[in-house]
Amino acid sequence: MDEKPYDGEVLTRRVEELQRERDELRKDIEQLCMQQAGPGYVSVATRMLSQRTTALEQDIEILQKKLSGCLRENQNLQEELAEAYRVKSQLADLYGAELSKTKELEQQVRFFQSSVAQAFAERDGSLLECEKAKEREEAGLKMCATFEERTREYQTAMEDQKRLNDALQMELTELKAHTESSLNVSMLLILIAITTSINLCKFT
User: Can you tell me which residues the record assigns to a coiled coil (predicted)?
Assistant: First the structure.
């Protein structure tokens, strides 16, 4: 892109040089014609001037066409360059917006990762508490089972003790009855003995 404006400048300078050369050539021929008054020389000089002028005009026309083409191409390139800068600016804006979105998404991802890590930590803590609660529950169930077993043992012992107490109470009742009966018999025998002794004393 940098060479095109340079080529246009070169062509412009070349056209200007040819135009100056043409003008100088005309002046030189005019001076020669004024110095040489011969008609034959003037005719030859005029023909040479005409040929040289025609060649120079053709060169100038060709160079002007090239210059016009270069200028048009330069204009097109300038427009393309402006469009490229506009697209570049749009892309830069889009890139900035996407970069901002990317940073925002990265912040959201870090926040979600932190939230997920916290949730996992809370879950692990809850699982640990559940395990501890389960262990306490199992220990409580074992204690309840032991307590129930001891309660059954105490109940059985109490029932055995009650049966024993009932048997002892019955035996005690029987013993009291037997004692009272024996006591009555003993008292009766004593009374009989006393009565007998009294009667014997009377007879003697």
Answer: 8-35, 60-94
